[in-house]
Write a structure and sequence with these properties.
Elements: H1 2-10, E1 15-21, E2 24-31, E3 34-42, H2 46-56, E4 68-76, E5 79-90, E6 93-101, H3 110-113, H4 117-127, E7 132-137, H5 144-155, E8 162-166, E9 177-180, H6 189-196, E10 203-206, H7 212-223, E11 227-232, H8 237-247, H9 251-257, E12 258-270, E13 275-278, H10 282-288, E14 297-300, E15 311-322, H11 325-332, H12 337-346, H13 352-361, H14 367-373, H15 378-381
Parallel strand pairs: 7-11, 7-12, 8-9, 8-10, 10-11
Antiparallel strand pairs: 1-2, 1-6, 2-3, 4-5, 5-6, 12-15, 13-14
Helix pairs in contact: 6-7, 7-9, 9-11
Amino acid sequence: MNYILTTAISHKASDIHIEPDGKIVRVRYRIDGVLREMMTQKISLHPAISSRIKVMGKMDIAERRRPQDGRIPVAINGREIDIRVSTLPTTGGEKVVMRILDSANLVFDLEQLGFRQLLIEKFKRILDRPHGLVLVTGPTGSGKTTTLYSALQILKSPEKNIITIEDPVEYQLGMINQVQVNHGIDLSFATILRSVLRQDPNIIMLGEIRDAETARVAVEASLTGHLVLSTLHTNDSVGAITRLVNIGVEPFLVASSVIGVIAQRLARKICPACKQAFEPTAEMAARLNLAANGTKYWKGVGCTQCYNSGHRGRMGMYEIFEMGAESRRLMEKNVSAGELRALRAKLGETTLFDEGMLSASQGQTSLEEVLRVAWAPAEEKA
């Protein structure tokens, strides 16, 4: 187990998967967002491995029929690393997933995260507003929490009272009050949020809007002089607006409260050690609507440094929808997502796909990655 943990941390893995598979135990690491098989062990070792993890995570080693959650704080190479453990009973035995929270890998600088200068200016302009609701949206594992933490790093000062409500608190931040959700004692997002509003906050960071009650309290807080930052699971920035209405928030309240939405994805960067010029196939050119303007594209051919994947490290792709008078008028009328996207296009705003293609043309990521994380069929864009 010590070897599995130290190797995963040295490879900058975000997760470790330990799963019984027939006559073997398979160990996989999620590196740069993709699972890679690192080793296998005899199935006879599986009970000992899972019991060892449970002891480390202060879990019940006798309970194998129910899912369990635990936490393992470890010190490796002189730094503290937090590991969240989840077990799940399967037909072959217990599957264990370990999420590695290593503060050494944290980056709060917007430019290093992948924001272009134009988008940084737009993001900071949204954060300069004294009150309103700012939403960060994207699939699980797309870096939403890191973006929120980066915003808090920009906003924090001795003059401001900043309180976060998280499930769970992933990293400890200085000068910020962090509260953890605990469903066992009925400490939900909505319950804590109501209490936080009596704590004289200037800025509230809400880990996730999951239901109508939390959404309404967040909207009310943003309308009563607080800056509220939160996340939603939608495909793009416009989808966050329609999602709030679908949850049950009145369109006029959404129009009054939301001041900006950031949609994001994480794309793998091309490995610098095996980077080569690349000529897109006719099929790829047609799918991505590539113009024959001589733009040069790149890809990684695979080497030992990138485990023959052609990619090493990750970068963010971002789409920002800053609310203006025209977009608010449309939102009050409860128009479709397609009409809001048409307005964004009319205003010359870039989409996730546009940002991805720009990164590909600059040699930062590959066209395959743009297709994987940011491309959407025509009917989805409508």
